């Protein structure tokens, strides 16, 4: 879907990206992570030509990105950023409709799309449709920002620390929304973050950057089980490394297919072992039931199965 071939970027003779090769496949949730100044945002912005690369070639949908006019590229590539960038004097619906309007969609199609996206992002249309950005909380604004980025059904969604400024609870719920949206829409997503837990939770692939170079590109599990070097190990953190390992394992994969009817509390199959462990500690129990997405009990999870 997106391919970087030997990409270099220099700003005023200073090289910030050097010899970058990266392929983001269709449907991937690719998370770029690295220290401040490692080049994450620059890489993201080169994809939609907000920043032009200096050497090498970037391809999008099989064509060099320079063969697309920037505005054509930006209609096919949604972009959501931390500061949201909503138009302050436009209502929520007008903000969401920005690109469909530019594309000349008819009013009925735009209406339907606004309703669909507000539902997808968990925004109450009756309450927020005609509200202005300043009347919304940070989390609600961020949801509108994501809805706007998805409005014209782009092939790719670029997200630059979209949840960086949010409180942990709102952040958590938006991460869960992004996982669901990715699963439901199959969009190709390139996402920048500083937060390793966020990366492990969302990514199908994590790309770790340092000083404009890729240090490791791997699935969350590969990364945790085989960090490429000390830099990656350091980045994964020492104190909660075990918890990170649990965060990429699901309750469903570790449960026993046994009747858990006698156990009061349960987690869902897709919940992480980290969450299950947290519940066990809070509830002072060594066992939890496991439910499928319809709430039906499908198994039993024991503390012993988490730590072995
Ligand atoms: N317009 C610019 N002019 C000059 N240098 C720039 C410009 N934009 C970025 N840089 C430099 O390029 C390097 C990479 O910046 P970039 O914003 O891509 O890093 P980042 O990994 O996204 O950082 P952060 O996590 O702090 O947002 C930095 O050293 C930065 O100072």
UniProtKB/TrEMBL annotation:
PROSITE patterns: ABC_TRANSPORTER_1, ABC_TRANSPORTER_2
Any one GO BP annotation for this protein: quaternary ammonium group transport
Protein name (record): ABC transporter domain-containing protein
InterPro entries in UniProt: AAA+_ATPase, ABC_transporter-like_ATP-bd, ABC_transporter-like_CS, P-loop_NTPase
Keyword ATP-binding: yes
Keywords: ATP-binding, Nucleotide-binding, Transport
Assigned protein family: Belongs to the ABC transporter superfamily.
A Pfam cross-reference name: ABC_tran
Residue ranges of domain ABC transporter in the record: 2-236
Molecular function as annotated in GO: ATP binding; ATP hydrolysis activity
